[in-house]
Amino acid sequence: MTGKIFAILVAIITTISAYCVIAHVWWMPVDISVHGPKIDSQLEETVLVAGTLFIAGQLVLAAFVFLYGGSRAKPMQIPGGAKPLVLFAFLLVGAEVMALSFIGSKAWGAVYFTAPDPNSLHIDVQAGQFAYYFRYAGPDGKFGALHPELINEGTQNYFGLDPEHDPDARDDIVTAQLAIPVNKPILLTLHSKDVGHSFYVRELRVQQDFVPGLNLPIHFTATQTGRFEIVCTQLCGLGHYNMKAYLSVLSQADYDEWLKKQAAMQ
Amino acid sequence: MDQSSLAATTHHDLLTEASPYGIEKKKLGMWVFIVSDACTFGAFLFAYGYMRVGAPVWGTPFEFSSILNGLVMTAVLLSSSLTMLTAVRASQAGAKASAIKWLGITMLLGTIFAALHLREWFKLIGEGWRLFHNPTGGAAQFGATFFSVTGLHLSHVVTGVVALAFIARGYSRNRYDESHVETAGLYWHFVDLVWMFVFPLMYLMNAR
Amino acid sequence: MAAISARAAVHHLPPQGFIRKYVFSVDHKVIGIQYTTLSLVAAFVGMALSWAMRIHLAWPEARIPLLSLLSPNGMPGGVMTPEYYLSLMTMHGTIMAFFVLTAAPMAGYGNFMLPIQVGAADMAFPRLNMASFWVTFVGFVLACATFIIPDGPPLSGWTAYPPLSAVGPAAGPGQGWGQNLWGLSIALFCVASLLGALNFIVTTLELRTKGMTLSRLPISAWAWFINAWVSLLAFAVLLPTCLLLVLDRLGGTSFFIPAGLVFNDQLQAHAGGSPLLFQHLFWFFGHPEVYIIILPAFGIISHILPTFICKPLVGGWKVVTFAMIAVGTLSFVVWGHHMFVSGMSPFMAMVFSVPTLFITIPSVIAVLIWVFSLYRSNMRFQTPLLFSLGFISLFITGGIGGFFLAQPSTDSYLHATTFVVGHFHFTMGLSAIFATFAGFYYWFPKMFGRMLNEKLGKLHFWLSFVGVYSVFMTMHLTGFAGAVRRYSAFVDDFMVPLIPTNRFISVAALLLGATQFIFLFNAIWSRFKGPKAPDNPWGATTLEWATGSPPPFDNFGGRQVTVYHGPMEYDGEARVMQTSPEASVAGT
Amino acid sequence: MSSNRELTMSSYVGIGAGLMLIVGIEVILTYQHLPTRTLLFSLLCLASLEGFVAVMYLMHVKYEQPILFWTIFPATLFVLFLLCYLLPDAFRMASMRLLR
Q1: Residue D22: inside a domain, yes or no?
Q2: Which sign, positive or negative, has the C-alpha torsion B146, B152, B155, B161?
Q3: With contacts defined as CB-CB under 8 Å, which chain D residues touch C351?
Q4: Which residues from chain D sit within 8 angstroms of residue B29, using beta carbons?
Q5: What is the Cα–Cα distance from C117 to C114, expressed in whole angstroms?
Q6: Cβ separation of D99 and A148 shorter than 8 Å?
Q7: CA distances from B179 to A232, B24, B182, C560, D4 (A)
Q8: What average pLDDT does range A84-91 have in this prediction?
Q9: How many contacts, defined by CB atoms under 8 Å, are there between C and D?
């Protein structure tokens, strides 16, 4: 009796869990990046492989408990002993994980092993407790050097720029939200002012930590206009839950308009 | 298990399975400790390597005098290993008095090593080296890594001297036997072995 | 043939006086019980913390006046501050991972059972053994002390990533002495674990009684032995990591702190360090730690199953043991999968991802062995078997999540979502806890000489099993929607729709926690009022069941034990095991 | 087994002298002003040689059961080898530093 209850319980749990995943009750949002589809298909692939193993494993467990739970017959070992099981694990699971790591490496390479497009738009991103700031190079296309000792929230010198002595810094445009033109390759360089943070945009399928002391590049191309959330996923202190900014993907015209406005506000 | 290894088993081991290592538990315990301690030192040294590779400029502060001092320290520690060996052999030959004598000499050499090492430390501190400060303007990491790695090693030396003192005392009062002396010897040789890596990596790699 | 003859020399005499007997005792059985009790207390502390967190997540405005008495700063007026939420999360992780999951199945049961299972009178180094318990105890006290010191507990997570954890009070609340105590507490725990591991290894190799060849070791003993090696090497690296972190905090060094950090417009003096170095060193320990937690569980399950399905495991002791050795070895080469998005070199991500996927093979082998051992078996549904079956189900589910997180491409979406939280709670958290429960129900009669109440035990199992799935499977699902972990409130537009789901999780978690009190009551009540336990209530075949319940001081009452066959060797076909203690020693 | 009578004391003194000699070579190498990596490599090789001799003779693993050798060396070298995995990020730290 106990065995049957356990088996049925496991079966029910398996069915519900499987349904929720297959029916996408909770699922990834729409994908707006060029590299995203590779990641999504990789995830679907994994759902297929892992899901099969999950259902198979749970159901076989349930079946055996159901069948032999009440049995008082003379126990017997499974014919063939352990060899077939070990072979199965090595061949089937081995093949699956090899396939996953092979295809997966391609999806990963599409994001990290490709050089950024030479004429991509370069934006400098700085994370600090608990806000992001974004810096556009301005007309001269050059970023001013960073002087951490000059960082001053009061005078809104978030990056520690030195406009007096540094001509490159004079026309840098610093904003609190990230706006990018659609279908244009974007190169972000991420650096942190204080502790570790992270740059996570679900729709872009991009997550990259800010490592204090390093200047980490990440590049992508957005394919849809819209307004999306950038959230911090690396524990950074009491305001962690509240650290967010917005990513606006605009048409080229809107973007130029927006950038002019921002430049005027500096 | 061949005869020789069975010979090493102690009295009540006749009632137990022979150890695959054919050495008694104290010694095996010391070996296991040495493996784990070697990994700890390894982590320290790799942290040093990481710091050094990542540093833009890395000062090389050691004048030849310091290297010479290190050379003397190496000689002292190495000979202390030999005297330790003599003590172990004497104890195994049952020559208690001479074993204790050689243990004493080993402790003396260990103390000399520690003294020379501390002199080096105070010299550096006198020059303004700190855990977080580099007077030559190079990476502050030098002080941090040098003092932490050599400090860890120095603490092992001091612990070793104290341990040897206890062993010698217990051995002279028949509370401990030659196996204790031998186990202590293993530890002492290990401290020597670590120095064989610390000296080239911390001193020679930082020589002017 | 007579298997039990008078032992030539009794190992050592029982101590006199309460202190030597029950407090500073060198008897491995007392130490084992001390460890088990410590982790039981720690488990309920950790659970209370998770309760407070879940209540806050579900009802952010909820007032809990009682807690405001405990922590006036953290819970002004009984409402939790964001920083206090993070502190609770940090200490929940620290206490559960170290003082419960690492301590109970290894140091707790291992200390009590290993010497008896190999037929020894005590551990190899009893004094060292006592030392490791009391060092662990001090570590636990330090960890708890962070709650009462003015600076408050640390909030940088159980992983304590620098610079947040390294620069000190400048980095915000919870970065004062709380973080220092955390570092010291973990350093002490490392020392204790190293001494313990050393003791386990030497005991297994040197103190096996006549006839207890390595091929006749019970699988649980194998698991503890393998695990001792893994802890020996892993904790050896965590120890310097903690020391360097404390040195950064108190010594002013910059191992983990780079140049140019600015906190409220103040430039920090540190320069030249690297946060990635800490992450590498921490996870070098951190991933083996996951297996340090789960390997004893493997052993306990493989040890308990045959008794209750009345037949040996498929392939006997060999297959599972080699699977455990493979898992233990591979566990060292996969740590980078915790760092795919952490700024680690992307090529290293590939280097770490492949072995991470391949470690599933030995794990799958172990699971297949357990599952297919049930084929044509003859189950006796006592509580230990239920928890073992529950463990298998949970471990399958948890392992499946690994496929997603082992690949950098999919991990770059799921990393730091509740999917990860669900995953590691299934694998190292609840699987290990279920195995610990199985072991508790199985060995309680031996440890205390009383039987636990079966009805309460079964009730405890059913509620826990359903509770675990409804809490952590739901976390997996919300993870697909990108719900970020370690948030004390849901202010992001895409997190708001998930609030009802989180309420459900909270309610389920509270019930799951409540059911643990059934267990607590059962344990305490049976300890004193339970029916007397026979020597071998389950009809098991290992040495611990060939002596009294509880065993005498020298484990076999001055008898010399000789072993003639392994725990899973029967003449010919599998059959119901003998229930007489002779069977375990002499065979039939 | 714990017997080190396989060697006479004089030969141990010889070993000690040999080790000291290697240290001497290290010092001489240091002042040849080799490129850092060459120096590091050669120093590590010599140090490893010293360590090996010390373990085999001073700690007389040579005269123990072979399994002792096959336990301690693989276990330790395994960990030390894996710690090399840290270095790619160290070079990354050098090349991607924020403030130059």
Answers
A1: yes
A2: negative
A3: 85
A4: none
A5: 5
A6: yes
A7: 59, 9, 5, 26, 13
A8: 93
A9: 40
CA A72 to chain centre: 53
Task: Give residues 165 to 204 of C whose Cβ lies within 8 Å of A.
Answer: 167, 171-174
What is this structure's pTM? 0.94
A149 shares contact with chain D (CB less than 8 Å): no
The CATH number linked to C219 is 1.20.210.10
Residue A193 has pLDDT above 70, yes or no: yes
Is B13 within the bounds of a domain? no
Any domain includes D91: yes
Residue D5: per-residue pLDDT: 54
* Parent domain of B39: 24-206
Reported as a single tens digit per residue, the pLDDT across C59-68 is 998 888 888 8
C11/B12 Cβ within 8 A: yes
Q: DSSP string of C165-187?
A: TTS-GGG-TT-SHHHHHHHHHHH
Domain contains B8: no
How many structural domains are present in chain B? 1
D75 lies in some domain: yes
Tell which A residues from 240 to 259 touch D, by Cβ distance under 8 Å: none
Q: What CATH number labels A121-265?
A: 2.60.40.420
Pick the closest to residue C547 from C448, C443, C446, C438 (CA basis): C446
Mutate to test the interface with C, among A31, A45, A54, A85 (most CBs of C within 10 A): A85
Q: Which domain holds residue C434?
A: 29-257+273-585
Mean pLDDT score, C25-54: 95
- C-alpha dihedral (C551, C552, C555, C560), degrees to nearest 10: -120
**Number of structural domains in chain C:** 1
- Tell me the domain boundaries of chain A: 2-71+78-112, 121-265
D1 domain residue, yes or no: no
Beta-carbon-side half-sphere exposure of residue A194 (alpha carbons within 13 Å): 25
* CB contacts, 8 Å: C350 with chain A: 105, 108
Q: What is the CATH number of the domain that holds B31?
A: 1.20.120.80
Token readout for D74 is 């693989």
Q: Would you say residue D46 has pLDDT above 80?
A: yes
Tell me whether residues C273 and B51 touch, CB distance under 8 A: yes
The answer to whether position C158 is within a domain reads yes
What whole-number distance in Å separates Cα of residue C247 and Cα of residue C180? 10
| A19/C contact by beta carbon, under 8 A | no
The pLDDT, as a whole number, for residue B3 is: 37
Q: Which of B38, B186, B207 sits opposite D30 (nearest CB)?
A: B207
